[in-house]
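Just curious: can you write whichever protein you like plus the matching structure tokens?

***
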Amino acid sequence: MKQFVYLDTDSVNSIIAQSNSGLIGQKTTETSDLSSETTHKELGGSGTGSVEGGLMRLAKFKGALSLEGKMGTGNESQSVLKEIETKTLHDAAFDIAHEYISTTYSVEGTNTDIGSYVELDRTFDFVDFNYIDSLFSEDGFLSYIKKTEKEKIEIQAQSVTESLPREQRRKSGTALKQELKKIIDTNNKQYDDIMDIVKIIKSLIPYSKMLVSSDGYLIPLEDKHFRDNPKTIGFKHGGSMTCFGYITNVIGQEAEPDSGNIFGTLQHMVNEIIRSLIPTQKDNLFILHPIALYYDQRGSGN
């Protein structure tokens, strides 16, 4: 059973439409709902009556309702039923699209050509720049880290100073204070450098959320396709997942800029910066458009 974290239904529908020369409509649900609506209209009058049929029978509901109330209830049930049917269809539609792609094309992770479909089963790192910004802002978690580290350094320095003879402490007091300040400033700088890197990547990549794998995949994510609250994704989800999608770009080490095209040269510079900053173990960086991201819990058959 698949537990979807992310699903791009537009891409799923596109695959099904191309494989079947069109999308399968939701005829069953529409016909049933329209039939139920017609029954309501035929009752007429202003009296009450016993109702058991159409959507009412599906809900196992029986009662005496006025015509006006009956029609309102029918319309509300129709809306809920459509919503449930649509969600179910989307999940089932992915299996249809996945089966078509996997039986028609190779989806091995070694397919690194642009346009190739790949299915990756591995542990990804979630990156949420907005969340990181809030942590490393001067008024956020960064201030706490700097304060805690400063206190540790001062305690260690005090321990070393107290071990020195009194005369030596007196003569070297100013020098020790300067050295202590230097150590604290160096420690603070490492966190400031991290924040600078985050700001640079955020300005270069037009997405606030993405997945990164150690073997060179960068997977941008859009909030509208999440099945969970996008604000909690980085904290709530982790571990091994399956990502199914297709490669849209390769930022390669051996790529050469077009010297006659200023825009091509600028884009090459941007790509080189991104490739150098993203923490992967590979020289090339593969940009992957995700169709689905999910946990796959396979039954034991018992």
